[in-house]
Each structure stands twice: as structure tokens, then as C-alpha cells.
Amino acid sequence: MRGLTKVQTSATHSATLMDQRYRAGVASMIDLLDTQREALAAQQNVIAEKAELIKDDVSLQKSLGLGWQTNAG
């Protein structure tokens, strides 16, 4: 998870720098969109990993007999 977060941070930083380069006229729109796509893909990977961790935690809680209690009547 930590590795994915570092990748996301790096990709976001790269996208920010590329945006500055594009605004300065030294990078193309294709370059900008490509780095933005990479940043979004990295963000999606982090979100997917967090969702998987939550799912695994719920499965563990259920297997241990823990979880939500309902009021019976």
C-alpha cells in the first residue's frame, strides 16, 4: 500500500509539473493528458487497494464471529 501511495504522489507531482510546462508552452497537450492519465491510474490503484483492504478486514471480522449486532424484536 505504501508503495502505491508513493507512486500516486509521484504521478500527481509529475502531472503538476507537466501542467506548468504546458502553460509555459514547452509541452504538448498530449504530454499533459498522458501524465494526467497516469496520475489518475495511480489514484485508481490506491483506491482499489484500499477497497481490497476493507473487504479483507470485513471477511476477517466475519470469520472471527465479530461484526454488527441487530436488535431482535
TrEMBL record:
InterPro entries: OMP_efflux. One of its GO terms (molecular function) is efflux transmembrane transporter activity. Keywords: Lipoprotein. It comes from the Bacteria. Pfam families: OEP. Belongs to the outer membrane factor (OMF) (TC 1.B.17) family. This is RND efflux system, outer membrane lipoprotein, NodT family. It comes from Burkholderia ambifaria MEX-5. The lineage of its organism: Bacteria, Pseudomonadati, Pseudomonadota, Betaproteobacteria, Burkholderiales.
